[in-house]
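The passage that follows is intended for readers who have already worked through the single-chain material. We present the inputs for a multi-component assembly, then the predicted structure in tokenized form, and finally a short commentary. You are encouraged to pause after the input and sketch how you expect the pieces to fit together before reading on.
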Amino acid sequence: MSSASPSYGSRPWTFYVLALLFTLFVIFLYGPMLAVLVLSFQGPSASLVFPLRDPSLMWFDELFNPRRTGDVVGAFNRSLPLALVVMTLTVLISVTAGFAFRRRFKGATLIFYTAIASLIVPGLVLSIGTIVTFRYLGLSASWNTSGLGAHLSWALPFGLLIMFAVLGRLNPSYEEAAYDLGASKWQTVKEVVVPIVFPGMIAVALFGFTLSYDEFPRSWLTVGSKNTLPLEIWTMTTNVTSPALYALGTVTTIISFLVIAIALSSILFIQRKRSRGK
Amino acid sequence: MTPAPSSRSMLPTYLQVAPLTVVLTFFFIIPVGLVVLVSFFRYQMLVGIVPDFTLKNYVDLLTNPTTWTLYRSTLKFTLIVLAITFVLGFWIAYFLVFHVRNLLTAIGLFLVCTVPFWTSNIIRMISWRPVLGKEGLINTALLNSGAIDRPIEWLLYSDFSVIVAYVHLFTLFMIVPIFNSMARIDKSLLEAAVDAGATRWGVIWNVVLPLSKTGIALGALFVVTLVMGDFFVVTVMSGGLSGSATSGIFNDLQFLNYPRAAANAVILLIIVLLIAASIFRLVDVRKELVR
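Having made your guess, compare it with the prediction:
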């Protein structure tokens, strides 16, 4: 077979060139994160660059016993519940909306394009709008009201797009077949719809959580006087000139990795359980 | 997608879509509408926003050379980042879809690319400091190897570091949609093209590229809107030396000049929407999504 098609025959030279490009890209992606990870164990020299002298955990200690570093623990105690609420609402709302879009209804196109517009509107513009809205309503901005809404306006369209992709694979004839074989409506949902849709729902949950947990531009004006974690880190980038900043980076990255691991392993678990048959 | 059986009521459908509509109304349509409205209001020292109908904010902005400089700088960043992320995204997706033959390996490598997306952007931005700084890894390595005898200054806090950070943060938004489009291409099409006498580049140019255009369009949409709307990357990575279109908005907000910030936001929004609309004209994204 000709070597012009890369998927068959012996490996063409482009494979090696692109494999090199890919490797370099992965180093580019992870290299700086590794640098921060290593430097967060910097010793009392408090140097922000390599080499690592007298490795210690002192900057992690500094992080949780704040003298200079600000209210990291408080910020985390707001960011985590906020992310969990955004996650739950994103899953509930985008899954139900995704099912609505399987039928044609008046206004479908309008709602779809509104969602897309909400996705691409610059975060700062939305931040201003939300804060002005709250001011006119006589409400004060807070992370669990205006902050929550601003995060949803960004997480929901993502969730909706994923549901479009997932539900595209759910052929309506599967459900019809289930009905024809005598399944009740509830049985059809439980035995046919949920197994197909569930991995997608976990993906939506992962997006909902992380988009909120890491969101900066939409949080900036809308969370009110108490910072969420990304805002706290942002303040620290200007005030804190010690490796405590790197320690915070390491801690948040570990939390992110835990969340990703939980999401991916539950998807794998479901896939395996399904392929084995019930 | 589903042909609606006329016997079933549409009520459940509207109930299903209602929560989404409510959230979008209160946290997208009304806020953006108010931004447009306030942009015509007057700003008064100590009072803040005064209802009015004036074009003064727009005239102020459009006659101020700083506005133009900032927008030019933002457009420059957008075009450079768009070009780099497209080239990287296209070839990485191409590699994963057509060169990696084991599906599990391809999915694994794809996940390796996507994991950083789910970690904090700010931390990923800061992580360039110990790499690019004056005493950073690159400078130290170059000094030790004798390639240079003074640290390179323009690695950090420059246009260069801004672009590095953008590419670092946003290439994923190109890879994922292009990967999605390419994964749907029937591999026998490539074989057919080869059998019909196409060269390697002929296949890429005439088969792969046209069939991945939805992904490219979606990726471009993400990258353009993220870079155009960014304030934080450009501020941190340029060390305050470069500005972006949003810097003007940020400054006005510091002085609580909401009307002018709103007018600037409207200008930014119009530019972003025009770019988005031209991308949507090229590709019917919704039709492709539900395909």
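Commentary: Chain A has a mean pLDDT of 85. The longest helix of chain A spans residues 244-276. How closely did your sketch match?
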